[in-house]
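Revision sheet: structure tokens.
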Amino acid sequence: MDSNTATDHYTVRSPFASTGLLCTQSVADHVQRLAAPYLHLQPGSSAPDTWRVTAHATPSDRSVTESVTALGEVAVDYAVDHTDRTLVHLAPRGEAWVTQSLLRATRAIHRSAASRRGVLFVHAGLVELNGLGVALVGGSRAGKTSFVMASVLNGSGVMVCNDDVSLTVDSTGGTVTGTGWPRSISVRLDTLDLLFGEDRARAVLASLSHPANETLPSLRASGIEQHGTALIYPWEYADLLETKIGRSLTVDAIVHLSLADDPTEAEFAPVPPPHRGELLDRGVLPLPNKHLNIFGHQPEPEALLRTHNAVTALPTFRFRYSFSDVRQEVDRLADLLRGRLSNGP
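Predicted:
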């Protein structure tokens, strides 16, 4: 990126915070594309007391260095001035990494603000499945991404988020809303093969623009990631599946998802109320961000408990499915949920 390129001020907004962004128009356009529909960017300076992120400033003498090293990616370095509320991206350079880095930092600030409000962050996908808001809770490799993508391909699903949902409750304590965040989607390579066939899967991989895809193959070569993985930006996901992505959704049911080793192990079962809290807690993220938890994120305990109680009051189920049958299993879960919820929790 040419450091002499003109820069402009922008404001980034979410339901939880407002932050400033100083960058070139080209980077701003890329950030807006990556952030939609979760964060909104508009021209103009942010309020004086808000955090500002940029790659076009000299760090102050008060700044401290923060480094983010995600698995399979290069290190990303920042200079952070907590007094002036300014975060400067230092390295690596190049427009793709500057864009990714500024968005990552902006997202971390907004998520920290959400955490202070008592938002519950859960390792879960959120999809509108035949008109029902379904949060699919599960750890890494539980089959969430495959299930969400298959539901969209089947024409029965609309994705809000793939792996990371924030849950809030309304003032009455009865309606739970799930909100997504601008985060790249980590997809197993065998999922792409299964859903699209090997030839189209190779074409999809060649078209992806996340800069970390240049280094992620090292994880498979080293044996860390058995199946291989690729990162898909939300806009690429929407184009690939010819769909729209939702920003938020009312949650009607919680489904704890897992993969069956054998099709005979597939199951669907309700979770009794006394066991819902313990099961949910396994999927709750202890921190709002994987990195950059440096902006203050401690919630009021009562606010967090209120959200937790509302989520555990929702109809909750276990669903174990066969990976190779994922498209059929999408329809099966939709039918099972519709039948259960039409008769009450």
